[in-house]
Structure formats: C-alpha cells, structure tokens
Amino acid sequence: MRTPVLAGNWKMYLTPAEGRKMAETLRSLVAECAGREIVLCPPYTALSAVSEALEGTNVFVGGQNMHPAREGAFTGEIAPPMLIALGCRYVIIGHSERRQYFGETDATVAEKVRSALAEGLIPIVCVGETLEQREKGVTDPVVEIQVRQGLAGLSPEELAGVIIAYEPIWAIGTGRTASPDDAQQVCAFIRSVLAGLAGDKAQETRILYGGSVKPENIKELMNRPDIDGALVGGASLKAESFARIARFE
Ligand code: PEP
Fold first, then answer.
1. Do residues 15 and 237 touch, judged by C-beta distance below 8 A?
2. Contact 60, 30 (CB under 8 A)
3. Is 81 exposed, middle or buried (0-12, 13-18, 19+ CB in 10 A)?
4. pLDDT, tens digit (0-9, with 9 covering 90-100), for 79-97
5. Which residues of this protein are catalytic (predicted)?
6. ipTM of the complex
C-alpha cells in the first residue's frame, strides 16, 4: 500500500505573514485527515513561518528547489541542510518552470536528486511533456528519458523512496487537466519504466499527478490505481481549497 501524498507548490506567492495565516487555517481543516502525507512547499522566505505554524501537526513542509552542494560560494542558492534546518522533509526537483526558465536539465535534476537523498530529504521529481510533444504522440519516450536520466544511478531502495510528479506542462496553471485516464496511463507507464530499474521496489514509489488539480477533480484522479496523490499549484494557495483536495472532497 502506498501512502498518498498531497503536496502544494506555492511558487513565488505568499509573504511569511500570509503563509503563516494559510498554514494556521489549513492545519485545523485537515487535522482529522489520516493515512496520507500533506505537504506545503512555500517560497524560501516563508519556510520558517510556515514550519513554525505546522510544528507538531500532520502537515509537512518542503522546499521548491535546492542547490546540490552542502554549502559554498553560490550566491542566491540554498543548500539541503538549510532546508532541513527550517523543518523541510521534502524538496521539489526539476519542476517544469525551473527547466523552462532556469535552464535545469535531466543532468542537474539527477545531481540534485542524489544530493537530496544523501541529505535525508525526500525528492519530488517532476517530469512531463509539452503540448507539442503530446500532439506528436511522443509523451511516453519524453517522460521515459526524464525518468531514466533524472533518476540515474539510484539503487532500487532509493528509487522506492523518491516521489515522482507527472505534470504535463500544458496542464500547469492553464485550467486544463489531463483526463484521469490519460494521467493514469502515463503514471502506469512511469511505473513500468521504474520496474525496469528497480524491479518489485517500483511498486513502492509514489507517483503523483500535477496540472490544474482542484477539489472538483481530485477524487476521480485518486481512483486510478497508479496515481498516488497530487502536486498542486494554484489551488494550494488557499487553505480551504487545498484542504478539500487533501480530504479528497
Ligand atoms: C504546479 O505548479 O506544479 C502545478 C501543477 O500548478 P497548477 O496546479 O496551478 O496547475
């Protein structure tokens, strides 16, 4: 049995005060939610306030990115131990916005994933195709390369501990959601790629869907056998809507 994961990616939204308020509201709305991992990934500047507000609750905190080194002369970057010191358990790696606007590649993703695991963070590794790639019918090979290269060199145990977020780029922030069947098909395909790398351990890897997830579509997505949760952008900014998603309402 894989424990579902509902992770909110706030991107570059919410100040520390706004983040604290949202977290304080969310924690009471999901206090009764058992058997799932609920995660908020605020901007770096709000991590401390959000972590404090969620201490001792069933909601965890993650970073949206990290540098692979433990420390160093990398102006503007944040190291994994810094995330851990602020209460993070998770870190998003290779989000399509990082790939698109900040030049991240499967090679940088692989480096960050290895570093996150070595430091004790659970990586949420994002993969997904563009609209053009989907229309050309090359979704599976595109996603397979991202999975194989982004997770290169990991042992079966490490592969079991990674979370993969399948996020078709055309569905992110657009209001267009992949149909639950299409999302399931790609998530099952990802699991088959993982099985080639990790054997039976691939059954333990959590695979999330991301792309315009909202309270109205979470239930149907969660009904699919290879979808183990969601990575949520816009709808995670408001406590009420993210709580409904976390409760599968
Ligand atoms: C995301 O940022 O990963 C995402 C899926 O965003 P949205 O839910 O807004 O489409």
1. no
2. no
3. middle
4. 999 999 999 999 999 999 9
5. 95, 167
6. 0.97
Distance CA 32, CA 44 (A): 28
Tell me the per-residue pLDDT of 217-242, one tens digit each, with 9 for 90 and over: 999 999 999 999 999 999 999 999 99
CA-closest candidate to residue 150, choices 94, 200, 198, 102: 94
**What is residue 120's three-state secondary structure?**
coil
pTM over 0.95: yes
CA 234 to ligand 1: nearest atom:
9
Write down the catalytic residue from 37, 95, 97, 129: 95
d(CA 79, CA 133): 33
CA count, 13 A, side-chain hemisphere, 175: 0
- The tokens describing 116, both together, are 């996150």
Question: CA-CA distance, 220 to 61, in Å (whole number)?
Answer: 26
What domains does the chain contain, in order, with CATH numbers?
A: 5-246 (3.20.20.70)
What atom of ligand 1 comes closest to residue 97's alpha carbon?
Answer: 2
Give 172's DSSP letter: T
Cβ atoms of residues 212 and 173 within 8 Å: yes
